Amino acid sequence: MVSRKNKQRVLILSSRGITYRHRHLLNDLASLLPHGRKDAKLDTKCTCKIYIPWKNFHFTGNCLKGSRPILSFDASFDKEPHLRVLKELFLHIFGVPKGARKSKPFIDHVMGFTLADGKIWIRNYQISETEPSKLKSAEEETAAKSKSKSSGGKETECSLVEIGPRFVLTPIVIQEGSFGGPIIYENKEFVSPNQVRSEIRKKKAGRYNARAEQGIERLAKRGELGLRTNGGRQLPKDALDNAELFA
């Protein structure tokens, strides 16, 4: 029986005006998705789309390109309807299907999805297998030998080493279609960065206007007191002034 190749694809897009750091991170993400495809425009033929701006970090460790990950989700993803939708979306995007193109038939890394502060924290870990430490007591060595004999293999210790990329996602809206359609979820607490920058500009403009008004009031007071040569209240002429005597 001939196995059919899985044709599921994930389209990877980026927003306009990204920097070289964003491009490097998108390339790292694409290397984790053997069933992904990078493009500069939206393609309706792809089954899943991922559209992310991010930040990059550097970690030690590595995982083989094309390997399939274990996806670990926080229990909070099963509590809210929109979180269940996001969980299903992540399963389709990061869960490399069996038999996908360029995928390898083994698992060597774990991707963790955690919900905290209304954001989704995503981490990538390498499954590191090492031999147990040689500094063990006689009882531990005997137990290890008996365990290895019963299991029929060599005893190893497994640990997780973060290898990146790591990123944080803020859910804004969930639409029924791909980048369109009715909104089925909206984050009411989300504040757009453009709005934040606009508020900062307004505050700066308000401080400038306040200083300008204070300057105008100060000049007006000086003019009323006769401390300005031009403008302000005119003082009465003195009959003994030299300008009047020798006019």
Automatic annotation (TrEMBL):
Identify one Pfam family in the record: Brix
Entries under SMART domains matching the protein: Brix
Which stretches does the entry tag as region Disordered?
133-155
**Which GO biological process entries does UniProt record here?**
ribosomal large subunit assembly; rRNA processing
User: Where mainly found?
Assistant: nucleus
Q: Per UniProt, which keywords does this protein have? A: Nucleus, Ribosome biogenesis
Which residues fall in a compositionally biased region of kind Basic and acidic residues?
Answer: 133-144
Task: Choose one Gene Ontology CC annotation of this protein and give it.
Answer: nucleolus
Its annotated compartments are: Nucleus, Nucleolus
Q: Which superkingdom?
A: Eukaryota
Q: Where does the Brix domain lie?
A: 1-180
The Swiss-Prot or TrEMBL record annotates one GO molecular function as:
rRNA binding
What does the similarity note say?
Answer: Belongs to the BRX1 family.
Question: By what name is this protein known?
Answer: Brix domain-containing protein
